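Quick start: read one record
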Amino acid sequence: MLKGRVGLFKVGLELYTAYGNEAVKAVQDEGGRVFLDLKFHDIPNTVSRAAEEAVKLGVDMFNLHATGGMEMMRETVDRCRKTAEKLSRPAPVILAVTVLTSLDEGNLREVGLLGPVEERVMSLAELAQRAGIDGVVASPREIVSIRKRCGERFVIVTPGIRPAFEQAGKDDQKRVMTAREAITAGASYIVVGRPVRLAPDPVAAMDNLLQEIQ
C-alpha cells in the first residue's frame, strides 16, 4: 500500500519472528528496501555471523546494540564489509542502538545505570563511530547533540515519531517528537510505525506525514 511513499520498510521482531526471511523477501519482491530491525546483542562472534546473514539476505540497513561493546561492533563491521565485497554488492548501513526510546532516566536507574539519558546516548554514539559503525538509532531529543559530536555524515535514524496530526496517546514511547521537528533537527531517517500502520487509511496517514515534513 505504501510502495513509492517510503524510503525503506522496517521488518522488526514481531514480523520476523512470525514469518522470518519471507517477510524480507516479500518487501524486496515488490521493489522495496528493507531495514532489518532485530537489534542484535550477543558475543562478538554470534552478532557478526548473524549480521553476515543479513548481508546475504540483501537488506539495506540493520542494527545492533551499542552496549555490546567495541569488539562486537568492530568485528561485525569487518565481517559485513568482507561479505559484501565477496557478493559484489554494497554493504548495508549498520546502525548502533543507543538508548531505547521507551526508556527514561527512571528506567535506567532501575537497571543500575545512573546519569542523564543524553550523556549515555552521546557516549554510545561516539563509541559506535570509533568502531566504524555508520550511524545510530536514537530518540529525536538527542539528534542535535549527536550531529554536533559525530558530524554531518553520521547517520541518525530516529524512532519515537508522532505526527502533528495525531492526538497524543498513551503508549510506550517516552522521548518523542513530530516528524517535522525530527527532520528539522537533523535526522537522516525517521521511523514511523503505529501512527500509519494502525490508521484507518494508512496511505492517507502517510501522505499527511509527508506533507508535514515538506
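The chain has one domain: 9-213.
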